[in-house]
Design a protein that fits this description.
This protein is mainly alpha-helical. It is built from two helices and no strands.
Length: about 80
Amino acid sequence: MSANQVALWYLVASVCFILALKGLSSPHTSRRGNAFGIAGMAIAVLVTLALVYSNTRNVFRYWEALRSAARSARSLRGVCR
């Protein structure tokens, strides 16, 4: 997910939250306001989880590369003796 996509999804979630507040101001529109709030929170949570997953996957790749470099350094140290 690119930064622009994340920002756009967070913007959609924030618009849903604003519409939820507007809808909850009247008893006649409270069900619709509640639905907007639920949708906004679901979007925000899903985008955050997707962002954490993509960054975690990159962290695991980084640690794997670092571990591989450490193994190579250890094997070179044994050859140089």
